[in-house]
Amino acid sequence: MAAILCVGSDVELLDTRAAVLRSMCADVEWVSTGKALESIAGRPFDLVILCHTVKQDEARQIYDATHRRVATAKVLRLARLSAWVVDNFGSPADAVTDPSPLALVDCVLELLGMQARGETSPPAAEAHAPRARQKTDALQGRIG
């Protein structure tokens, strides 16, 4: 089970995103930006998701701490402009995606090497991906 940390300032958004990710059978924790470094020091995460509210200097510290703790971990930055690419974004991240539930799920699955865009995945991911998609469809209007 993948360990995911969601970081941001809007408690309702963090809680909703965590629920979407938990539906994929991920172990999800969410924290305010000020608590992120403490959480990363306390346990390893496979993926850290930075909400658009995380400031650039904080994003850099979180990105660096994440990769020091687990070299293979990924950092995903959520941004309103999904057309941006990591190299042009100017924020430390391994990937950038739109904050919509469907885009978030697709990107998380891809970053974690699970089922995404026709790729093969572990059996557990395949079993839970349809349920996650149904839940993200239902939550589509709540995150954004």
Question: Concise description?
Answer:
With 144 residues, the protein is an alpha/beta fold. It contains six helices and five strands. Strand 1 (3-8), helix 1 and strand 2 form a beta-alpha-beta unit.
Produce the secondary structure layout.
Layout: E1 3-8, H1 11-22, E2 27-32, H2 36-42, E3 47-50, H3 56-69, E4 74-78, H4 86-89, E5 95-97, H5 101-111, H6 123-139
Parallel strand pairs: 1-2, 1-3, 3-4, 4-5
Helix pairs in contact: 1-6, 2-3
Tell me about this structure.
The protein has one domain (3-139): 3-Layer(aba) Sandwich (Rossmann fold), CATH 3.40.50.2300. The chain is built from six helices and five strands; from the N terminus they run βαβαβαβαβαα. Residues 115-144 have low confidence and may be disordered. The chain has 144 residues and is an alpha/beta fold. α1 (11-22) packs antiparallel against α6 (123-139) and α2 (36-42) runs parallel beside α3 (56-69). 45% of the residues lie in helices and 17% in strands. It has helices at 11-22, 36-42, 56-69, 86-89, 101-111, 123-139; strands at 3-8, 27-32, 47-50, 74-78, 95-97. It is globular and about 30 Å long. It has a five-stranded parallel β-sheet with strand order 2-1-3-4-5, sandwiched between helices.
